[in-house]
Amino acid sequence: MSNVKKEEGKSVSAYIETRNLDELAAKTGNLYKSINVISARSSQMNAKLKEELHRKLEEFASATDNLEEVFENREQIEISRYYEKLPKTTIMALQEFLNDETYFKDKEI
C-alpha cells in the first residue's frame, strides 16, 4: 500500500481502508458526533489547501488572458500535480482524529 506524504512529513495512506466504527464512536461517545468532527476538520483543511494553492498559482496569473498567449508553465504544472497527489482532506482529517490530534469541544446548550 502506497503512502502519500503530508506537508508536516507524516505519511497518510492514499487508499480508503475499512475502519472500526466502535473506535470512532469511543472518542466522542457517539458515532455521528465523531463523523461531524471529522467533517468539520476536513472542511477546515480543504479551505486552507485551497487558499494555499490559489496563493501559489496567483504568481502565474496574467493580466490579459488571450488564447494566443497561453503557454505551458512547468512550475505551475508541478504545483498543481503536488496538490493533486495529496490524499483527500477527509482521509487526512480521519487520520488526525484517530491519532488524537484533533481538538473539539461540545457546545453548551
Secondary-structure blueprint:
Elements: E1 3-5, E2 11-13, H1 21-28, H2 31-58, H3 74-85, H4 89-98
Antiparallel strand pairs: 1-2
Helix pairs in contact: 1-2, 2-3, 2-4
Please describe what this structure looks like.
With 109 residues, the chain is mainly alpha-helical. The chain has a domain at 19-62 and 70-98. Helices cover 53% and strands 6% of the residues. The protein has four helices and two strands. It has helices at residues 21-28, 31-58, 74-85, 89-98, and strands at 3-5, 11-13. It has a two-stranded antiparallel sheet. Helix 2 (31-58) packs antiparallel against helix 3. The radius of gyration is 18 Å and the shape is elongated.
> What structural class should be given to the helix and strand makeup?
mainly alpha
What general outline do the C-alpha atoms trace?
Answer: elongated
Mean pLDDT equals 80
The fraction of residues in strands falls at: 5-15%
Radius of gyration (CA) equals: 18 Å
Pick out the low-confidence regions.
1-7
The number of helical runs is 4
**Largest sheet properties:** 2 strands, antiparallel
Number of strands: 2
First-residue to last-residue Cα separation: 44 Å
The largest beta-sheet arranges its strands as: 1-2
Q: Secondary-structure element order, as H and E?
A: EEHHHH
Proportion of residues in helical segments: 40-55%
Summary of the model, kept short:
With 109 residues, the protein is mainly alpha-helical.
Features:
single chain, 109 residues, mainly alpha, two-stranded antiparallel sheet, 6% strand, disordered N terminus
